[in-house]
Structures are given as C-alpha cells and as structure tokens.
C-alpha cells in the first residue's frame, strides 16, 4: 500500500514537522500536544481530516489529559469520523465522549484470556494502604530483582513513591503523563539500556510501549 505517514511528537523539530505537512502526509501518528500545536500554527488543516483515532482513550480522556484533548477536539470539523479505542470505558469517560461524538456506535470485542509465557504471576494481599511501602521494601530484601516496573494509580503517587524509594537508597526513575516527551524519552532509553533499574509509573506505560 502506497501511503505517506509521519510521526509528530514533542521534543522534535517543529520546522521539520511543518515542512513534512506541506509536502503532504496521508496518515499522522502523534501526541496530543504536538498535533494541537500543528493546528494552531495552521500547518495542519482540520478540514482535510477524514478520520481521527484516539487509542487508549480511557487514559487519554482522564483528568491528566482531559483539557488538552478537549482543546484538540475543538479543531475537528463535524465531518471528521472519530474513533475511540480502549479495553475499558469507565462511566466518567463515557460522559466525556458525549461531548465529542455524535450518535456513536459501540463495537465490543470478546475478551480473550491473557497468558504471559515464562513469567510467574502472584500477588501479595496488603490489607492497608500504609503498609504498601514496607511490603515493597521487604520484597526487595527477599527477591533478586535486576529490573522492575512499579505501577501507581496516580501521577502524584508516582512522585511520592519515587521520593520514598530514593530516601531508602534505591535508584529509581519516575515517568508519567505530566513529564514532557524529552524527559520520557531519556528515562525509557536509560531503562532499555539497563542503566536505569527501576521505573515508577502509571498504567499508561503498560499500554503499547515496547519495553
């Protein structure tokens, strides 16, 4: 298939992105911030958009990105088909979709059992929230862990746990949606190379990122 596509993300050269749009691009893949910036600069003409696809929309329409996404959607003409993709669709996210979609159709895919070959899975039943940090530290004392990803429910929790782990002499790296693209790229590069041993993040990292 002869299709011209390009990636538009923060931290890259804006002038180069504008030049590529002027040359003609059929498919755009990018982050909300950079795509909105291209709309503002009138480098990307919204009337030319036939379809807009938002992957992991439950996260992208959550409180972290909500205002940014509503700003982006304000540029889209009524003729643009909007496609929202997600494994989960909480009620609060459904409420947001009513503001950006017209007569949407829901397509449900049968949930298949997820199996992770070569990975042992278990859980620890921590009865109280305040015991979680102590349990995490105990796991590190008990197990031999070369690299790990620790998931938190909120960005504020990521920052708090990072601070606590550093106080206990652990070398950790936080990564979440409030960081700019350059910061996230540096952290991911360090983790892939092995120089960063522990990532503390939100579940957004678990979706579609090649570790």
TrEMBL record:
Protein name (database record): RNA helicase
Source organism per UniProt: Petrolisthes manimaculis
Cleaved signal peptide residues: none
UniProt keyword list: ATP-binding, Helicase, Hydrolase, Nucleotide-binding
GO terms, molecular function: ATP binding; hydrolase activity; nucleic acid binding; RNA helicase activity
Domain Helicase ATP-binding: 1-107
Pfam families listed in its UniProt record: DEAD, Helicase_C
InterPro entries, A to Z: DEAD/DEAH_box_helicase_dom, Helicase_ATP-bd, Helicase_C-like, P-loop_NTPase
Domain Helicase C-terminal residue range list: 118-211
CDD domains: SF2_C_DEAD (cd18787)
EC code(s) of this entry: 3.6.4.13
């Amino acid at each position: 298939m002869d299709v011209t596509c390009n990636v538009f993300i923060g931290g890259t050269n804006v002038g180069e992105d504008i030049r590529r749009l002027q040359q003609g691009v059929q498919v755009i893949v990018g982050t909300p911030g950079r795509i909105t910036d291209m709309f503002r600069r009138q480098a990307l003409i919204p009337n030319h958009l036939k379809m807009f696809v938002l992957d992991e929309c439950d996260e992208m329409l959550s409180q972290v990105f909500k205002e940014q996404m509503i700003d982006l959607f304000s540029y889209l003409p009524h003729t643009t088909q909007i496609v929202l993709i997600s494994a989960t669709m909480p009620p609060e996210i459904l409420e947001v979709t009513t503001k950006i979609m017209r007569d949407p159709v829901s397509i449900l895919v049968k949930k298949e059992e997820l199996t992770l070959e070569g990975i042992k899975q278990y859980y620890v039943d921590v009865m109280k929230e305040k015991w979680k940090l102590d349990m995490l530290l105990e796991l590190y004392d008990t197990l031999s862990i070369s690299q790990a990803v620790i998931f938190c429910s909120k960005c504020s929790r990521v920052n708090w746990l990072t601070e606590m782990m550093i106080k206990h002499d652990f070398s950790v790296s936080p990564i979440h949606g409030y960081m700019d693209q350059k910061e996230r790229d540096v952290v991911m590069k360090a983790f892939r190379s092995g120089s960063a041993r522990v990532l503390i993040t939100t579940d957004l990292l678990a979706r579609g990122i090649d570790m």
